Amino acid sequence: MMLFLFAIRNCFSVAIVAMTKNISSNPDVPTYTWTNQNIIISSFFWSYAALQFFAGHLAQTFGTRWFLFSTVLVNSVCCILIPFSAALLGGSGVMACRIMQGLFQGFMIPLVSNMLGRWAPIKETSTLNSVVFTGVYVGSISSYIITGYFSASSWGWPAAFYFFGSLGIVWCVFWLLYSAESPAHHTKISHIEKTYIQQSLGQHTDDLVSTRNIPWSAILTSLPYWSIVIAAIGESWGSTLLNSELPTYLSYAIGLDIQKSSVFTALPTVASLIVTLGCGPLASFAVNRGYISKINSRRFFHGYGSLALTVGLLVLPYLDDVTSIACVLTITVGSGSTVVCGHLINPVDISPRFAGVLMGFSNGAGQLVAILAPILVHFVVVDLTDKELWRIMFITAAVIIASTALFFIVFCKTERQWWDEGEKKETKSPPSGETNKAYEAEVTTT
Questions:
Q1: One GO molecular-function annotation for this sequence (predicted)?
Q2: How confident is the chain (446 residues) per 10-residue block, as mean pLDDT?
């Protein structure tokens, strides 16, 4: 799922270069004279944050299965409609499709966290989280390269939207056939596996959590949780800037053609895929063997990834050599992906029961702020070929990433918080930040 949604999301960043610049071998492929490219790019994020604040809340009440199905289906249909919308309504039509895609993708991250909270055993959380998030990188890699290929070919950029939209619809069929809301509802796993997952996570009931039992006041006054929110703002700003604007920067400021630009954009994502596949099992191994505490593991992986991104963004705008740019991007973005074992997994640590709710709010807040990144590019980088103007954007991103990472490192926690037990525990709970002792005993005896 993550693969298809990120392919649908990121193919537009490459395609818009071809939509506004005649690069296809086929002269009949349409191009447009839009002057608000960055506003069109940012339109996806206008609505992306909106549903994230409510997605986890809705999943706790109604479940995740049908919401995830709707997310992929709507995104796939809108992807197929983009070429028609561009021809009939111009940039406004494209923005309407992208706004709808962003709105429904708001369900994605919170509901994936919700599913991990129900399905990922405690000792396997880091590994499974990394495996799931590899879809982000595989989807991005495929979208960059395939869109660049289609855009330069006789098929032109519209073929990329038809291709990825069709794949998403095929995924929907398989999801309906093989998905389940929780281990208790899955008919194809063994009783031993089901019992192992449920006991590991302390699942005593198959019922969904009522919305009135979500301890909002405790969550919103929890400093460990706010460290996740702040970290999400920095990570979202950096990823939004790079995913949305890197193809444009490489094409206009560096002067690469679209196929080379798409490959250069994909190379760092390949590195991210490799790092993500490795850091999850490495984190689980180190924590389970006692080589490092869970909290220091989260601090290390988030801090290392943020430091790499900060340094890379400070160096990148001063480089002119194409090979140097490729190396810096690959090392920077690849190393930066270790945050998948930092703040991105932390909601499952502190509250497996409400992980979807927490992730929805934190990712929503992050994306709400990150909307400003491409909009700021539109107003600051008035000449897309001027590297001095791009330098302002990269340095700004570096400062935001570094400062938010520092906040997370200082204030994060990994103990399951007392309020994770919900309303029934609120009247006799320990101070904020401490572990629920009943839960500790429960896990110890299972």
A1: transmembrane transporter activity
A2: 89 89 84 86 84 74 84 96 94 94 87 76 74 83 89 91 96 88 76 77 53 79 96 93 86 82 79 86 90 95 95 93 90 90 89 82 87 89 92 96 97 91 46 42 35
What amino acid occupies position 227? S
Beta bridge partners of 435: 417
Contacts of 5 by beta carbon, 8 Å cutoff, 6+ apart:
71, 72, 75, 105, 108, 139, 168
Tell me what pLDDT residue 414 has. 92
Cβ atoms 165, 79 nearer than 8 A: yes
Beta strand segments in 71-140, E: none
The two tokens of residue 159 are 């073929």
Q: At 435, phi and psi to the nearest 5?
A: -80, 145
Whole-number Å distance between alpha carbons of 202 and 204: 6
Tokens read off for 169: 């619809």
- Number of CB atoms found within 10 A of residue 389's CB: 16
Interval 261-310: pLDDT, tens: 777 777 888 888 888 888 888 988 999 899 999 999 999 999 999 999 99
Whole-angstrom distance, CA of residue 161 vs CA of residue 83? 7
Spell out the CATH class of 2-181+213-414. Answer: mainly alpha
Within 289-336, residue ranges assigned H as helices are 294-315, 322-336
DSSP string, 164-202: HHHHHHHHHHHHHHH--SSGGG-SSS-HHHHHHHHHHHT
- Look up residue 36 and give its DSSP letter: -
Closest CA to 343 of 288, 386, 373, 302: 302
